[in-house]
């Protein structure tokens, strides 16, 4: 493609050949076209592809989808889902790669983000969870329109209908989303959410209102039941809660009589496990309904509703253990500094975003803490998402 044509290329233009480089954070690989960076989805490192541009609004980079593979990587496979691909459902980034390669790509992203943002040089392995690559997602969000259920196209408001057999990521116990959508007026779009607990009980929400099933569901993890608001937070993979609690408990090695904070505690999962080990726990969470349920789930612990950064100012000036399980944006400077100022003997950081983890670990290192262990888990097969548990101790 000539340089003047390249400069004026519009979304929808097919360009190439593009040589695809390393995977990057966000579910794409880095390609280059006549000196310009192109973030390419649905490609694999080392491939040569033609790219349909989807975003040319930035001077320094463009975005696009690999629509023709000229030289394929041996790890490339045919996606099981007919709408997992360029210009279609935005839910699966890596379904075109075999399972072991997916985990290698995620490990590479974690390794690069921790190196770049925290100055850590680590050998990262992403661990597989039981249950396989499909049928694991217990919480599904759709758009109901014209009597059909649909998903959003990546970085777009456009819709792509869910296959007639349903989304292959959803747990089999969930009701048919097309049947649910067909029962709604087809003149408007509706937010359709389906949540299924460990027993197979499902709750259906239309535009945020429960229309079928209970408002509170019951999950089971670490040998106890947990009441969870159907519209609240709980890990979407059936084995995630036990996996993450196991990693946190192994890393912290709690001792009876110690004190601990569970920050961003949700319905009390980590506080419950640590309380059972004899730790005096105080959980903090901004969601008041989650705090109410945490108090019922773990009556032996203390829970307070409010913003973590503000409540930490009123909490004890010392503690033995801290669990941080922040939202995707991370804990941030104020929370990290406040945690480090309390001199805990160990901090467990549970992270769903490698970049946020890297930033916060870098901050902890500057505050006198070092990473003692890191485990990464494939909690979200066929997507670019990965969950990490980092254990930090005083340097």
From TrEMBL:
Family affiliation: Belongs to the class I-like SAM-binding methyltransferase superfamily. RNA M5U methyltransferase family.
Active-site residues from the entry: 352
Residues holding S-adenosyl-L-methionine: 235, 264, 285, 325
InterPro entries: NA-bd_OB-fold (IPR012340), SAM-dependent_MTases_sf (IPR029063), TRAM_dom (IPR002792), U5_MeTrfase_fam (IPR010280)
Molecular function terms from GO: rRNA (uridine-C5-)-methyltransferase activity
Residue ranges constituting the TRAM domain according to the UniProt record: 8-68
Keyword S-adenosyl-L-methionine: yes
Keywords from the UniProt entry: Methyltransferase, S-adenosyl-L-methionine, Transferase
Position of the signal peptide: none
Gene Ontology BP, a term: rRNA base methylation
Record protein name field: TRAM domain-containing protein
């Amino acid at each position: 493609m000539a340089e003047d044509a390249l400069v004026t290329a519009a979304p929808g233009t097919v360009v190439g050949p593009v040589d695809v480089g390393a995977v990057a954070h966000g579910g794409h690989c880095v390609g280059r076209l006549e000196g310009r960076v192109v973030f390419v989805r649905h490609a694999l490192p080392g491939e040569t592809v033609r790219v349909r541009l989807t975003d040319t609004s930035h001077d320094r980079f463009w975005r696009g989808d690999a629509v023709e593979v000229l030289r394929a990587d041996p790890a490339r496979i045919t996606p099981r889902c007919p709408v997992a691909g360029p210009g279609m459902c935005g839910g699966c980034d890596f379904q075109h790669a075999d399972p072991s390669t997916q985990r290698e790509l995620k490990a590479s992203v974690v390794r690069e983000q921790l190196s770049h943002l925290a100055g850590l040089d680590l050998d990262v392995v992403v661990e597989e969870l039981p249950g396989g690559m499909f049928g694991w997602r217990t919480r599904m969000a759709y758009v109901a329109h014209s009597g059909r259920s649909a998903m959003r196209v990546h970085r777009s408001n456009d819709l792509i209908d869910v296959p007639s057999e349903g989304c292959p990521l959803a747990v089999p116990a969930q009701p048919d989303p097309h049947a649910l959508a067909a029962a709604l007026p087809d003149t408007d779009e509706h937010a359709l959410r389906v949540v299924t607990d460990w027993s197979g009980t499902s709750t259906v929400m239309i535009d945020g209102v429960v229309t079928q099933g209970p408002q509170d569901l019951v999950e089971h993890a670490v040998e106890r039941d947990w009441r969870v608001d159907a519209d609240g937070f709980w890990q979407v993979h059936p084995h995630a809660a036990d996996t993450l609690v196991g990693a946190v408990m192994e890393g912290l090695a709690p001792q009876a009589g110690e004190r601990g904070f569970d920050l961003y505690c949700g319905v009390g999962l980590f506080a419950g496990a640590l309380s059972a080990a004899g730790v005096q726990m105080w959980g903090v969470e901004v969601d008041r309904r989650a705090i109410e349920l945490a108090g019922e789930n773990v009556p032996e612990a203390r829970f307070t509703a409010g913003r973590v950064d503000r409540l930490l100012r009123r909490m004890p000036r010392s503690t033995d253990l801290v669990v941080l399980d922040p939202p995707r944006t991370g804990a941030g400077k104020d929370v990290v500094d406040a945690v480090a100022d309390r001199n805990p003997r160990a901090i467990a950081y549970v992270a769903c975003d490698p970049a946020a983890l890297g930033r916060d670990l870098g901050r902890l290192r500057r505050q006198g803490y070092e990473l003692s262990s890191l485990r990464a888990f494939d909690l979200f097969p066929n997507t670019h998402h990965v969950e990490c548990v980092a254990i930090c101790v005083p340097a």
